[in-house]
Design brief:
This protein is mainly alpha-helical and 227 residues long. It has one domain. It is 72% helix and 3% strand. The chain contains eight helices and two strands; from the N terminus they run βαααααβααα. Strands 1-2 form a two-stranded parallel sheet. Helix 1 packs across helix 6, helix 1 runs antiparallel to helix 8 and helix 6 packs antiparallel against helix 8. The longest helix is centred in the middle third of the chain and has 38 residues. 24% of the residues are buried.
């Protein structure tokens, strides 16, 4: 049996891929989990504050999301009116949503390939400053997003505007008129805030799991190697 060699490069590669997978999967959760939106219909009293029934709201949301995740090429919002201006924004949203889903799928495949390839090649991650890839991925992501969360908590509206400026540079089509693009009336800012909270919670939990798992692994490893 050939000896297993350690690789810092493998540690860095695994940390980057783990971070990409956790981030993209966390973002994908509110996109793919439609019941998360449905729960807001009653919670935000949308059937009372808008002229549409729960069925019409669900249909409008489902058709809009089907377009944004690539299930259909035809944009529609059920019984709710929309404009070319609004459609152009959701075309931009579609690009971002599909990018995130592809990153999630690609990073999952790449992670599996790295782990299998390392095992076949007799390689394992070499700790950097006593930490393995899980700790580095979890610590890095947690630090960045806790800072962002702290800023957003102080002024969510400003953070919301900054988000659109970053991801839709030079565009204003994300500013929708509820009288023309009626879909925005069933997508209040509170829903987007709750999406951000859900993503942050999933990220923090995921980072905690990565860090804890790595700490346990490193302890067991040191015990095995101690004569």
């Amino acid at each position: 049996m050939r000896p297993v060699k350690e690789s810092r490069l493998l540690t860095v590669a695994l940390a980057v891929v783990m971070a990409a997978l956790l981030l993209s999967a966390s973002i994908a959760t509110p996109i793919l989990c439609r019941p998360f939106y449905y729960a807001h219909i009653d919670a935000l009293r949308l059937t009372e504050t808008t002229p549409w029934s729960e069925g019409e709201i669900r249909q409008a949301f489902d058709e809009m999301l089907d377009f944004c995740v690539g299930k259909t090429d035809e944009f529609s919002t059920g019984a709710l009116a929309w404009s070319d201006w609004g459609r152009s924004h959701f075309e931009d949203v579609k690009v971002l949503f599909l990018l995130d889903l592809r990153v999630a799928a690609g990073s999952l495949v790449l992670l599996a390939a790295l782990l299998i390839g390392a095992r076949l090649a007799g390689r394992r991650p070499r700790p950097i400053l006593g930490r393995g890839p899980g700790s580095w991925a979890g610590t890095g992501l947690a630090a960045v997003f806790l800072l962002i969360a702290g800023w957003a908590a102080l002024d969510f509206q400003r953070a919301f505007v900054a988000f659109h400026a970053v991801f839709f540079p030079g565009k204003e089509n994300w500013i929708l008129d509820g009288g023309v693009d009626e879909i925005i009336n069933i997508l209040p800012a509170v829903f987007f805030r709750n999406c951000a909270i859900l993503i942050l919670v999933l990220l923090v939990l995921g980072c905690a799991v990565l860090i804890a798992g790595d700490v346990i692994y490193q302890r067991k490893r040191r015990k095995r190697e101690t004569p």
